[in-house]
Amino acid sequence: MDPNTHDAERARRVKRAAIVLGLVAFAFYAAFILMSVLGLRQ
Amino acid sequence: MANTATHDHAHDDHDHKPHGLKRWLYATNHKDIGTMYLVFACVMFFLGGAMALVIRAELFQPGLQFVDPGFYNSMTTMHALLMIFGAVMPAWTGLANWMVPMQVGAPDMALPRLNNFSFWLLPFAFTLLLLTLFVPGGAPAGGWTLYPPLSLQAGDSFPLTIFAIHLMGISSILGAINVVVTILNMRAPGMGLLNMPLFCWTWLITAYLLIAVMPVLAGAVTMLLTDHFFGTAFFTASGGGDPVMFQHIFWFFGHPEVYILILPAFGVVSEIIPTFSRKPLFGYESMVYATASIAFLSFIVWAHHMFTVGMPLAGQLFFMLSTMLIAVPTGVKVFNWCATMWKGSISFETPMLFAIAFLFLFTIGGFSGLMLAIVPADFQYHDSYFVVAHFHYVLVPGSVFAIMAGVYYWLPKWTGRMYNEKVGKIHFWLSTIGVNVLFFPQHFLGLAGMPRRIPDYSTQFADWNMVSSIGAFLFGFSQLLFVYVIWNAVRSGEKAVDRPWEGAHGLEWELPTPAPYHSWDTPPPQAVIAKGSMH
User: Fold this and answer.
1) Contact present, B160 and B203 (Cβ < 8 Å)
2) Cβ under 8 Å to A: B residues 264-283
3) By C-alpha distance, which of B396, B294, B416, B415 is closest to B354?
4) Would an 8 Å CB–CB cutoff place B234 in contact with chain A?
5) Which residue has the higher pLDDT, B5 or B323?
6) Which of B135, B148, B187, B249 suits a disulfide with B191, CB 3.0-4.6 Å?
7) Is pLDDT of B177 > 70?
8) DSSP alpha helices (H): ranges in B299-343?
9) Mean per-residue pLDDT, B410-419
10) What is the DSSP code (8-state) at residue B310?
11) DSSP B108
C-alpha cells in the first residue's frame, strides 16, 4: 500500500476509534445519571 | 515547505525543538508532554505531602496543638484529592506519554493536540481546587469521597471543587482515549499485541478502565451539583433521595480507580525485575490475562467499601467473595515476579531496590486488604486506621515506589545522564524505613479502635501515633533527596550509554541516549523488534 494511503487510512481509523471511545465515555456518564433519575421515580 | 522537502532523511532524528514558552504551551511532542506531566505530578506530590505533614504534626500528640478541626478535615480531604488526582494519576500519564510511543515503535501519540489539551486542563483544575483554601468556608472538608449530605454543606468551595473534579476527569478520559488509540493503531509493523512490553499492556487496560469509570465520577458529582444548586434530590433523604445511592455510584468509580492507580505499577515492575534479574519475565501471557482479570473483577467489588451501610446479606456475601477472588490474579502476578528472579543473575541498582520493596510491601498491603474483605471482620475495621494503613501500603510503597522505580530506570534514556547511584540508594533506604515506620503502626491503631479522619484522639492511641508521625517526617523529607538526585543528574550526571542496564530489552533501549526529540519517525525494522522482545 502506498505510504500516503496507509497514513490516511490510519488517520481515519484513529479518528473513528477516538470518537467511539468518547461516545462510550459519554454513555457511562449519561447511563448513571439516567439510572439515578429512573430510580427516584420508583 | 521547501526546507522540509529537501530535508535529508538521514537527519530525521535531529533535535528541531521549538524554543521558549511556546515549546511548552503548544507542546505536541510526547516527550515534552510527558515531562510536563511528571513535573506537575512532582509539585502536587510535595503539596499533598505538606498537607500530610500538617496532619501528622497535629496527630503527633493527643490534644489540638496546631490547627483547628475544620482545617484539619480540609487537610485530609485535600491531601487525598491532590495525591490521587494530582500526583499519582498524572505521574502515570507522564510515564505513559514518555514510554508508550517509544516502546511500540511509534513516532508520537496518535492525537498530539488532544494530548496537549489533556495536560493543560490539569494546572487549571488544580488552581481552582487549591483556591478553595482561600475562599469563605475553606477547602472541602468532608473527605475525598464527597459523601452527601456532608459534602453538600460545604461553603463557597463546593462549586470550585466540583468543577475541578470535572476538569480532572475530562483530562483523564481524553488521555486514556489517546493511549488506547495509540496502542491499537500506531504500533510498528511486526509489533503484535502479545509482543508489547507489559507496561504498554497494563496502560492499555488502565486506559479502558479510565474511559469507563471517570464518567461515572463525573455523573456522581454532577448530581451533587444539581442537588446543591438546582433543587434535585438524588441524594437528599428529605426529598425522596438516598445518600447511600451516592456511595454506590462513587465506589463503582472508586474501586476501578484504585486499580487505575496500581496497574501501571505492575507494568513498570514487570519491566524492571526482568532487566535486573537478567532473565525474561516469567509467564508473560499469564501476566496479561491476570491484569485483564483484575480489571474485569474491579467492576464487581465496589460495595466492599460500604459493608456497614445496611446491605442485605446476599449483597455482603457476593462482594466479599468477589473481593477475595481478585486476590487470585494478583497472586499470580506476585508469584510470576518471584519466579522471574528465581535463579536470575540479580543486581540491586536503585530501580531494582524499589521494585523489590514494591513486591514485598504491596503484598503486605494486599494481605490487609484480604482481611478487610471479610465482612464480619470489616465491621470492626471499617472507618478505622486499619483501612488507612491498608490503602497507604498499596499506594505509597505500591504506586509511588513503582513511579520512582520507573523514573530511576528510564531517567538515563530521557536525559542522557546517569543519576548518582549512591544517593539514589540512600533515598531508597530512607524512604523504605520511613514508609514502614509511618504506616505499619497504623495497623495497630486501627485494630485498637482508632477511627479515621479525627484531629484528636484518646490517649491510649498516643504512642503509635507518635511513632507514625516520626516516620512521616522521615519519609517526607527523604523525598527532597529524590528531587536532588534528578536535578543533579540532569545538570551534571555522568553521560549514559544507549543501554545503561545490561539486561534491558525493549524498543526504547534500541534508541540513542538521550532519546532524540523525534524518535521512530522511520518504524523500527522487524529484526530490531524481535531483538527487543524477549517473550
Assistant:
1) no
2) none
3) B396
4) yes
5) B323
6) B187
7) yes
8) 313-325, 327-341
9) 97
10) -
11) S
Name the burial class of residue A22, with classes exposed (0-12), middle (13-18) and buried (19+) by CB atoms within 10 angstroms of its CB. Answer: middle
* B24 falls within a domain: no
C-alpha cell of residue B88: 499519582
Chain B within 8 Å of A3 (Cβ-Cβ)?
no
Q: Is residue B286 part of a domain?
A: yes
Residue type, B15: D
User: Do residues B274 and B503 make contact, with C-beta atoms less than 8 angstroms apart?
Assistant: yes
Q: In degrees to the nearest 10, what's the CA dihedral of B392, B394, B400, B404?
A: 140
Strand partners, B417: B495
Distance CA B171, CA B365 (A): 29
Q: Is B249 on the interface with A (CB under 8 A)?
A: yes
Position B2 in a domain: no
Domain that holds residue B311: 32-532
Task: Round to whole Å and give the CA distance between B98 and B173.
Answer: 18
Q: Does B225 touch chain A (CB under 8 A)?
A: no
Nearest Cα to Cα of residue B270 among B283, B260, B253, B257: B283
Q: How much is the ipTM here?
A: 0.92
Q: Measure the CA–CA gap between B307 and B379, rounded to whole angstroms.
A: 7
Structure confidence at residue B207 as a pLDDT band (50, 70, 90): very high
8-state DSSP, B498:
S
Residue B15 pLDDT class (50, 70, 90 cuts):
low
Please state, in angstroms and rounded to a whole number, the distance separating the CA atoms of residues B197 and B104.
Answer: 8
Q: Which residues of B are catalytic?
A: 79, 108, 144, 171-172, 255, 257, 259, 270, 304-305, 330, 333, 452
Q: Which residues are registered as beta bridge partners of B495?
A: B417
**pLDDT tens per residue, range B132-174:** 999 999 999 999 999 999 999 999 999 999 999 999 999 999 9
| E strand map for B225-382 | none
CA–CA separation, B213 and B223 (whole Å): 16
Of the candidates B283, B292, B263, B279, the one whose C-alpha atom is nearest the C-alpha of residue B352 is B279
B230 to chain A: which residues are within 8 Å by CB? none
Q: Which of B310, B442, B456, B327 is nearest to B387 (CA)?
A: B442
Query: Are B211 and A29 inside 8 Å of each other by CB?
Result: no
- Suggest the residue from B210, B216, B522 to mutate for an interface test with chain A (most A CBs closer than 10 A): B216
* CATH classification at residue B266: 1.20.210.10
**The three cell numbers locating residue B469:** 508521625
Residue B223: C-alpha distances to residues B140, B156, B236 (Å): 17, 17, 11
Q: For the segment B471-520, what is each residue's pLDDT rounded down to a tens digit?
A: 999 999 999 999 999 999 999 999 999 999 999 999 999 999 999 999 99
C-alpha cell at B98: 514518555
3-state class (DSSP) for residue B199: helix
**B298: three-class secondary structure by DSSP:** helix
The pLDDT score that the predictor gives to residue B41 is: 98
Establish how many alpha carbons lie within 13 A of residue B283's alpha carbon, considering only the half-sphere containing its beta carbon. Answer: 19
What per-residue confidence (pLDDT) applies to B535? 55
Residue listed under C-alpha cell 489540638 = B64
Prediction pTM value: 0.95
